[in-house]
Amino acid sequence: MTDEMTEIDWTDAETFSRALERADTREKGNFFEAFGEGDLIEHDPGLTLTQWGNEAWMSQTLNHDPAYWRTDAARDRGFDEPPIHPDYLTAATLGITVEDLSEKGGYFLGRTDVRFPGTPVYTGTELRVESEVVSTATSSSRPEYGIVTWRTRGRDAETDEVLCSYERTNMIPRREPVATDGGGSAATAEEPDEPALPSEFVTPDGGAFEDFREALERADDRDAAVAYRHERGRTQDDTTVAGLPLATLNTAKQHHNADVMADSPSGDIVTYGDVTRSTALGHARSDEDTYREVGFDDETFHTFVTPGDTVYAFTRVLEAEDADRDEAGTVRFEHIAFNQNDEPVYSGTRTAEIRKRSS
């Protein structure tokens, strides 16, 4: 090292500014070109599903099912102890993948086929996550992006059992934009006519399986839908916007780098989509007697949720079928999360077993 080098005051503001201009940035994440159909990606480091993480997630997203909080209620549901909540398991499975798959940014286009095992997952389980590239495609409307779909599986690191799996699709920035015909941006079709809403909205009398089935029967053969909104809201704060993503190892700059996001379309850091989703589901579950989550499909995030926004929920009941168990029947819902401006921010279908009155 030369004498001149040792005499440099690297913390002098002007000197340090000039050093930053010349220094390369060690970037995180992968561009679109890094993904090839059939690639299998093992995500490090994995995550131990803890009681603290589980309860923090449930409490902050208003999921208050007693079977996940109290041993007596858990045993009444057939669990040995309060298990890991499916929303926390889903968020942890996705959070671990962010650095490898989507940290570069790009729009979350959707997730579907979210499934869980029939057996409960308990605290202390060590989660190992892998993703397979299902497909890659060019975006005709955004030449600076490509479209990637992954099949992700969260496994028990000890037994290799699949604990959570889903398929998700994202736009991913390209290292180099490609030439396209611009076909995705030139359409100027006429505005479609607004579809007519049902003339009547039916609200279930309670939260038991029979209440949902009877509401659907009342709506049958009429211009009616079983649809209702939930009273609670949850305003986004530091915990939901930054704390919960970090607890799932979700390092995306969208949730943590306010200076970078100030120049983004959202204008601010944004809430992790699984926080928005889980909050809306927590509102919905507060008006039903949930027995077990089966799965989720056709999940879409419609616009940004930023600090200070309030997440509300709206539910439509699609069908109710008796299951081969005395305790519960199966109900399929559509849930829509919306903000204080009544703008949809998330939507998806959910299948759950709902407790029967007789149980």
From TrEMBL:
<dbReference type="InterPro" id="IPR045672">
    <property type="entry name" value="MC_hydratase_acr"/>
</dbReference>
<dbReference type="InterPro" id="IPR029069">
    <property type="entry name" value="HotDog_dom_sf"/>
</dbReference>
<dbReference type="GO" id="GO:0016829">
    <property type="term" value="F:lyase activity"/>
</dbReference>
<protein>
    <submittedName>
        <fullName>MaoC domain-containing protein dehydratase</fullName>
    </submittedName>
</protein>
<feature type="region of interest" description="Disordered">
    <location>
        <begin position="174"/>
        <end position="205"/>
    </location>
</feature>
<dbReference type="InterPro" id="IPR048274">
    <property type="entry name" value="MC_hydratase"/>
</dbReference>
<dbReference type="InterPro" id="IPR052342">
    <property type="entry name" value="MCH/BMMD"/>
</dbReference>
<dbReference type="Pfam" id="PF19315">
    <property type="entry name" value="MC_hydratase"/>
</dbReference>
